Amino acid sequence: MNRNILYLLGFLIPIAAYGIHHHLIFFNESAFKLAIINTHGIPLYYLAGPMLYFYIRNTILDSNQLSKLDFLHFLPFIIGLTSILPYIFEDFDYKVGIAQQFIDDPNSIKTVHSHWFYPNYFNVIARPVLLLGYSIACLLIVWKYTNVKGNESPIVQRGLITKWLISLSILAFLVALLYLFMTYLFLSTQNLKKDTFNELPIGTFTGFAYAIIPVIIFIFPRILYGIPRAIQTINIPNEEEDQELPIGQPRENYLNDPLTETAERILTYFEQSKPYLNTKFSIDDIAEELNIPKHHVGYCFTNIIQTKFTTLRTDYRIAHAKRLLLSSQVDVMTMEGIGLESGFASKSSFFSVFKESTGLSPFDYMKQHKNQGAYRKFPKNHSENFNRPEVT
Q1: How far apart are CA 307 and CA 199, in angstroms?
Q2: Left if phi > 0, otherwise alpha if psi is -120 to 50, otherwise beta: which for 377?
Q3: 181-200 pLDDT, tens per residue?
């Protein structure tokens, strides 16, 4: 998965927390619950804008790194945290009293002071203004990206993610704009009644807007891969191997995918290094061994190799077990030993997966092929089905 998803979570969590905060003041009567989140959550709210910016910028750059200058974006969070330090150490009964005051009369938010550096209402203004500024910056970044021509990223994936980033930026912009309008109404109206606030459609809109984000991710999981860019690779010699493993044909629109060579490197790694013989072999090992970002590996399996990692790993292990079962080594190895040698963690998992794959138990497989000789070679390299490009 693309690690930039953590930045997306860093954007959604503060927005959700702010929504809960708003609900507890205007729709809920629990001073205890409000006291838990009231004021304490202020520094968190300042992270929504920077996290949205980091997510969109780093997704476009296919990077999850932050520079030293990027830490300047955390200044509002640090200032907000420092300003509420006195309040944090106040007695909880005092906090419940403040919360009850806000519930009874939301207008008291304008006059109550619980910060060191600035009045309480400053946060009410700063939150939407900051998010509005960051959402505009994000739209500009995506707009610049769409005007840059290049072939480092897969065309289909680039198109999908660009639409997603534009939609997310517009969504944040509209929510910030509506909250800014609500803030203006709140500060410019004396003795504003709760009912007036509750009738505003902003709560319904923002609730729907942010509820639909996980739905979009569920429907289009390829969003999680970001926009992978082809990186310069170290050439690996293409040696012929006596192995078999059928792999599905890649779709036509992925044959010229910039990450096709990356997928080729993954297959070559399987064939030459046989990492699947390690019982703990995982997709993380591929990323680490080949120095490929993990979300690039996931993208290659899903879109180019067209086979799940676990399926490919199992097929290789079964193929290796078949070779052992039809070789002279079967005379000196137990079935559990053959399973472990083939990468299965236990005898039971070996028998279960082998039968599911072949329709036969290891014993029945040996009996069925006993007339084919003590050793049976694999057909030629399975990756011929992959339409391997020439590695230069």
Answers
A1: 51
A2: beta
A3: 888 888 888 877 777 766 76
Q: Which of 5-19, 100-114, 129-143, 242-256 has the highest mean pLDDT?
A: 129-143
Radius of gyration of the chain (CA): 29
- Helix, strand or coil for residue 262? helix
CA distance 342 to 275: 10
Does residue 39 contact residue 121 with C-beta atoms inside 8 Å?
no
The full DSSP string for 42-92 is: HHHHTTHHHHHHHHHHHHHHT-----TGGGGGGHHHHHHHHHTHHHHTS-H
User: Which residue carries 């403040």 as its tokens?
Assistant: 98
Phi, psi of 15 (to 5 degrees): -65, -45
Q: Alpha-carbon distance 239 to 237, whole Å? A: 6
Q: Both tokens of residue 313? A: 């790993």
- Confidence band, pLDDT 50/70/90 cuts, at residue 299: confident
